[in-house]
Amino acid sequence: MSPEALGTLILLGSFFIMIMLRFPIAYAVGLSTVLCLISQGQPLVTLPQQMVRGVWSYSLMAVPFFITMGVLMGSGGISEKLIALANSLVGWMRGGLAMVNIVASYFFGGISGSASADTASLGSLLIPMMVNEGYDADFSTAVTITSSCEGLLVPPSHNMVIYATTAGGISVGSLFLAGYLPGALLAVSLMIGSYIISVKRNYPKGDKFSLKGFFKQLLTSFWALAAIIIVVVGVVGGVFTATESAAIAVIYSLIVSVFIYKGLNWKGVWKSLEQCIDTLAIVLILIATSSAFGYCLTLLHVPDTAAHLITGISSNPIVIALMLNVILLVLGCIMDMAPIILIATPILLPIATSVGIDPIQFGVMVILNCGIGLLTPPVGAVLFIGSAVGKTPMEKVVKATLPFYLCMIVALLLITFVPQISLIIPKLIGGYISPIG
């Protein structure tokens, strides 16, 4: 066995063994990197050097700001306003509260950028409300956790910033714009599935649609939705960078939460900041250790080997695109979202571009695949949160989620094979020019 093959076996083998043994993901990444460096005769000082290099990025400064913005807005009474807005828009349909749940997730996702925050915040309000109206608890929880993935696609999403940084040379503004239509497509797909189930189970309708009521709720929710406008319009219009827009959005969300909606007092602000620090510490240590892991992958020529292996199975672009999705879905079942983005992107992005998949489009594919992974055992964090919030056994939630998995897969396939779903808005508004034509 060649030294490169041995190093690859040690790096990936030890990593997956530790994952199966339920090591914290950052430890698994870091320890497998140490073992690989030792096997290759590399100095261990390489590890801290690469870790520092991984977080030494101006673009990554946007991540803590977006996380802080999401926590402040999520804790500041925004959820109720967005639920009321969604209810005024789609509550009249059969299974109206399920539709409200899905649309509210689209709105809230544009503020929090986190599926976990969406599930915890909206779920704690909507799941009991749905159960009281006659919806099954497992169905209510399934709708909540699947619709929460819309927030991963709708900007501002800190996971998109991580992808843009990892992929290199990708405009964060274009990536933000690329998420709107895929997020809407996912919402429509879930609404169709919810409607079919609601008709079959005769779930109730809400009040009739009122244009006056909708505009009233829109005005009430304006301050919350304006945060999205600040970030996206500012970045795309070139007024400020993603990092600057995120910092401004934090100040804005603080003002809205404390002084306008008055959902937070200063004690609550400090508590929210403590929560931000906990989340940020996890994200940054993952980015740092994954950078060192990525250095080992490059040292061992793993991306090239993986490309040759996949293209050796088939040269058909459709087959390769499907294989990339399967790989990401499998990784999503055993790993959390950030590590997948950080580790898989350098390996799979060159393969994707070689078969004509645009880097922006591939970013949306990665985010949605990882989102589906958040809903699948054994590592599905959002699945566990939803089960806890809905007070429903995980087994029942998984069973109720099966039809929605199908809806999400349909949306994923459309995003994979219809590039314009992801690219039309960046091209029309952001002036994005695809590097692959």
Description:
With 437 residues, the protein is mainly alpha-helical. It folds into 2 domains: 1-44; 45-428, no CATH class. The chain contains 22 helices and no strands. It has helices at 3-20, 25-39, 46-55, 62-75, 78-90, 96-112, 115-132, 137-147, 150-153, 158-167, 172-178, 180-201, 211-236, 242-260, 266-299, 302-313, 317-334, 337-354, 359-373, 381-390, 394-417, 420-428. The two termini are 41 Å apart.
Using brief descriptors, characterize the structure shown:
79% helix, mainly alpha, 2 domains, 437 residues
Overall pLDDT confidence: 86
pLDDT < 50 stretches: none
Helix/strand structural class: mainly alpha
Helicity range of the residues? over 70%
Query: In whole angstroms, how far apart are the ends?
Result: 41 Å
How many beta-strand runs?
0
- What coarse outline follows from CA principal-axis ratios? globular
Round the Cα radius of gyration to an integer and report it: 22 Å
Would you list the SSEs in sequence order as H and E? HHHHHHHHHHHHHHHHHHHHHH
Compute the number of structural domains. 2
Query: Into which percentage range does the β-strand content fall?
Result: under 5%
Quick one: biggest sheet? none
Number of helices: 22
